[in-house]
Amino acid sequence: MNYLEEKEGNIFFIPLFLPNGIKDNNKSYTRKKFETSAQYAFGRLIEIDKSAGDLVEIFNYIGTIPSDSSVITESGLMFKPFHIAMAFSKKRWRFIFETPAYDKEKDSNYSEISFLMGNRDSPIHWKGGEKNPFGGDPSLYERWIIHPPTKVEDMIRDKKN
């Protein structure tokens, strides 16, 4: 199986069979050979941000690696987009489909993605890449949290059960 580069719009697989202890987030999977017939979840890289976590979306499709990425992208979203770290650098999650004409607004509704960041006393509202002071009810918005890959894998397992 050939893997692709880390690039915005590319589709990646999430192995749901790897160990998921906290130390497994730091383990390198560079030499690991993944089987196409294994069970995976799938996501798309919306935006690369090494300092504050890559922005990703996770799709509903769980299964073997399909021959066409539309099976994945047309399955709908399992969660609202969120931030991750270490999954790609450690090769735990790998890119398998390229989306050459990816448009993060059209394909991922980028301008509607929002988070609260900063401290609770004076949070910043991040929406579609724009940062503005926030004065509303913080309970109505997701916090900007950077998840490790094992946490995301647990979230997916919990959702599918």
How does this structure look, described?
The chain has 161 residues and is α+β, with helices and mostly antiparallel strands. It has one domain (11-110, 145-160). The chain contains 3 helices and 9 strands, in the order βββαββαββββα. The chain has helices spanning 70-73, 104-108, 149-160, and strands at 11-15, 40-47, 54-63, 82-84, 94-97, 114-117, 124-127, 130-133, 146-147. The strands form 2 sheets. A 6-stranded mixed β-sheet has the order 5-1-2-3-4-9. The protein has a 3-stranded antiparallel β-sheet with strand order 6-7-8, with no helix packed on it. A hairpin with a 6-residue loop joins β6 (114-117) and β7 (124-127). The longest helix is centred in the C-terminal third of the chain and has 12 residues, at 149-160. The chain is globular, with a radius of gyration of 16 Å. The mean pLDDT is 92.
Task: Supply database-style keywords.
27% strand; 161 residues; six-stranded mixed beta sheet; three-stranded antiparallel beta sheet; alpha+beta
Compile the SSE list and pairings.
Layout: E1 11-15, E2 40-47, E3 54-63, H1 70-73, E4 82-84, E5 94-97, H2 104-108, E6 114-117, E7 124-127, E8 130-133, E9 146-147, H3 149-160
Parallel strand pairs: 4-9
Antiparallel strand pairs: 1-2, 1-5, 2-3, 3-4, 6-7, 7-8
